[in-house]
Design goal:
Elements: E1 2-6, E2 17-27, H1 29-33, E3 41-50, H2 57-60, H3 80-90, E4 94-100, E5 104-112, E6 135-139, H4 143-155, E7 159-163, H5 166-175, E8 182-186, H6 194-204, E9 209-214, H7 218-223, E10 233-235, H8 240-252
Parallel strand pairs: 6-7, 6-8, 8-9, 9-10
Antiparallel strand pairs: 1-2, 2-3, 3-5, 4-5
Helix pairs in contact: 5-6
């Protein structure tokens, strides 16, 4: 199965084509032996190719490193491909990049296939009690996720303040006349990282509890010094039930 689409502007400033192809494949022992963590057997192959600018060998060798990015400061975290690599390898698969400057890039992903039936997920647990008017300041630079989170909390009875950036959150915390019960902030954002936002909000709201949210695992964030171990974190994407349960736990703990 294959398809072609326009290339995003970051990959090809003058336009181009993005081709996606999928296939079933079987890897023999010889092929698997030359690639760490791969086992012989059936796989699904996903190949994504673009006609963009490509990348030199030195960049290819580092693209899966956490926090490595070629984008200007404030425009990229360098965590996207590191997260992709982690998800694929944890699933028993592999990912490779082939690229030449001026000739585009091809990313090939191999994921183990199975003939087993899908497991039916257990019924979700009952949602915890609502917020009863408690105030949550949500700091999230992605507009769609910020709005979804706002609606989740609003339905549960919280009074929700929203900010699209760290500086905006600090302005809200400074002018809010009453106490803010919880700061719910993304970890990796432009301008100010979530950890600094929490430190500065606590000077304005000394009794505030803090819950971080991120699409990256806590282990990866703590290993790179972005978020200390032991701090409250909910991983994206999250359900309303998971968020409310986490907030209940955070509110029952000590401030900070």
């Amino acid at each position: 199965m294959a398809g072609a689409f326009p290339v995003p502007a970051q990959a090809a400033t003058s336009g181009g084509t993005l081709a996606i192809a999928t296939a079933n494949t079987n890897l023999d022992e010889e092929y698997a032996a030359g690639r760490a963590n791969l086992q012989p057997g059936g796989y699904v192959s996903v190949k994504v190719s673009d006609t963009g600018t490509g990348m030199p060998l030195g960049v290819q060798e580092r693209v899966f490193e956490p926090f490595f990015t070629t984008k200007p400061k404030g425009e990229g975290t360098g965590l996207g491909l590191a997260t992709v690599y982690g998800i694929i390898t944890q699933a028993g698969g592999a990912v490779r990049i082939y690229s030449e400057p001026g000739l585009g890039t091809t990313v090939t992903v191999l994921l183990p296939s199975t003939d087993r039936d899908a497991q039916i997920a257990p019924s979700p647990q009952a949602e915890p009690e609502g917020g009863a008017g408690r105030v949550v300041l949500v700091v999230e630079d992605e507009a769609a996720l910020r709005e979804v989170t706002r609606r989740m909390l609003d339905r549960a009875g919280y009074r929700v303040l929203t900010a699209a950036s760290g500086p905006e959150a600090l302005e809200i915390a400074a002018r809010e006349q009453g106490p803010i019960d919880v700061l719910l902030t993304d970890v990796v954002m432009p301008h100010i990282l979530g950890r600094e936002v929490s430190d500065r909000v606590r000077t304005l709201q000394p009794g505030v509890r803090v819950l971080f949210m991120s699409g990256y695992a806590h282990g990866l964030l703590s290993a790179q010094g972005v978020l200390e171990p032991g701090l409250n974190l909910i991983e994206k994407p999250f359900t309303q039930a998971a968020l409310l349960t986490k907030l209940t736990d955070v509110l029952a703990g000590t401030p900070g």
